[in-house]
Amino acid sequence: MINHITLINFKAFRRLELTLGPLTLLTGLNSSGKSSVLQALGLLRQSYETQMLVRTRRAGGGLLLNGDLVTLGTAQDVLHEDFGPVEELPSVREPLVGFVIEEDGEQRTWAAAYDIRHPDRDVMPLAEGSVRAHLAEQPFQYLHADRITPAVTYPRSHQIAVARGFLGVRGEHTVNYLRHHTDQDVPMEVPGGPLRHRDATSPQLLDQTIAWMQELCPGVNIETDPIEGTDSVRLSYGFGGTAGINATRRRRPTNVGFGLTYALPVVVACLTATPESLILLENPEAHLHPKGQSRMAALLSAAAATGAQLIVETHSDHVLNGLRIAVKQGVLQPQDTVIHYFSGNGAGTEVVTPRIDKDGMLEQWPEGFFDEWENSLDQLLD
Predict the structure, then answer these.
(1) Among positive and negative, which fits the CA dihedral 249, 252, 255, 257?
(2) Edge-to-edge strand ranges of the sheet holding 221-226
(3) Residues with Cβ < 8 Å from 88, sequence gap 6 or more?
(4) pTM (whole model) above 0.90
(5) CB burial string 188-197: b at 16+ within 10 A, e below
(6) What is the tens place of the pLDDT at every residue in 115-153?
(7) Where in this chain does the record put each DUF3696 domain (predicted)?
(8) Residue 92: CB partners within 8 Å, gap ≥ 6?
(9) Which fold has domain 140-313?
(10) Whether 196 contacts 207, CB under 8 Å
């Protein structure tokens, strides 16, 4: 598990240090740097997957800024404008972008050079870096805020959905993944653990997915089918409470609200989590009603309780409160949860870390931290 991460000269941050836990929530103002934390991890993973971080500098190795996981532009887009030397990074004449990650007590550092002669390149040569890291090999999912929308068909790629087990950053391969892994059992590290839904008809992935989706929309069920002769698969919804021939008339995703299709990749990512998994999620609450957002938090907590690590960017007080309830109910321990609140005034970002106690209470409530409901109520009562 990643216990700590430091970003140096990266995007909005001259230096940012964050403690991470089994379930970490990144909250706060828009454009305050929350996504940069996820992008840093995605950037390292992307550079390893493409073998860029195992090549020598002379062979063109380095950080690959544009790929399947993140698209960050050019070197000048990621170098912090007020960059400077840092003691953790090598002392060289070139400006450096650096990442320091502590994984289970072992610290690894990567430093990539900014070539002043070629600021528009999308590969930053490595000045220092670990050849191997657990981050490069562990089961991994990264779902962006811009996920799949309701569509008639979705791509069918054996290499991505089956060989890599990857849902795609937009969740575009989720339907094909479900089709191939319908009968796969959802992990249960602890008998009676929270990840397996008790109302599901079986421990198999499709039935578990349906049960959790019914938390978001009662009575819904899903089917996935290949479209013969094409490289596409079809998703359909029913509202009879069962899958298959006993369900009510099937409906295309385009005739159902955004929320179900938007949430489906998040549900599948959590249900397929293992104790080794790292899951990065942006706005899992998008397009869900308040109760659905709370139940989504219960699913995130259940996935973390299996031993997976989740780092979640959210703007939802319902997700926050769902996490607090999970701690109070004993699904997660207080030390398993980390909350970082990002705030700033345009000149910099401050990060405050409220802690949750065993009763789900927060030890502090910083100004601007999910307090708009109270602010609006004060105006209404004034």
Answers:
(1) positive
(2) 154-155, 232-238, 221-226
(3) 6, 8, 98, 100, 109
(4) yes
(5) eeeeeebbbb
(6) 888 899 999 998 877 767 788 889 999 999 999 999 989
(7) 333-380
(8) 113, 127
(9) Rossmann fold (3.40.50)
(10) no
